[in-house]
Amino acid sequence: MMRLDDLDQRIIGLLAEDARISNREAARLLGISDTAVRKRLKKLSDSGAAKITAVADSAALGMTTAVLVRVQTSPETARDVVEAMASFDEVSFAALMTGRFNIVLLVAAQSRQAVADIIHMHLRRRSGVHRVETVEIVSVAKHNLDIALVSRKR
């Protein structure tokens, strides 16, 4: 685990406000050289502490239906089921979890029918799937990707 110092946090803060800010502009705002910013960003990226990426707005891309799906499987099939479902473009989040349901998925598609097709034709038919519970997301009050980052573990 990498420890972030104040300068790392300030660089990340600038990028969170404007991911397109240049190293030169970030350096000017922070009172350091652009080389220092570039080296810090490389260190943050190489360590996995920060990732600079674009996040598409699914609604703007026509993905107007979003559904949270909780799945209960037999323990021995959970990993195979979650990995199979993660392969679908419409599945933006797939994770193993504890509790009564051992898989959670976030599915976004162009229609309710498209979501239903994924659930009924691909998920429910998988061996070991015992129960599927869906909840349609109708309104989002907050979606902050940089706060509740969940690391990928293999």
Automatic annotation (TrEMBL):
PROSITE patterns: HTH_ASNC_2. Residues 4-64 form the HTH asnC-type domain. GO terms for molecular function: sequence-specific DNA binding. GO terms for cellular component: cytosol. Gene3D superfamilies: 3.30.70.920, Winged helix-like DNA-binding domain superfamily/Winged helix DNA-binding domain (1.10.10.10). Keywords: DNA-binding, Transcription, Transcription regulation. GO terms for biological process: response to amino acid. Pfam families: AsnC_trans_reg, HTH_AsnC-type. InterPro entries: AsnC-type_HTH_dom, Dimeric_a/b-barrel, Tscrpt_reg_AsnC-like, Tscrpt_reg_AsnC/Lrp_C, WH-like_DNA-bd_sf, WH_DNA-bd_sf. This is Lrp/AsnC family transcriptional regulator. It comes from Sphingopyxis witflariensis.
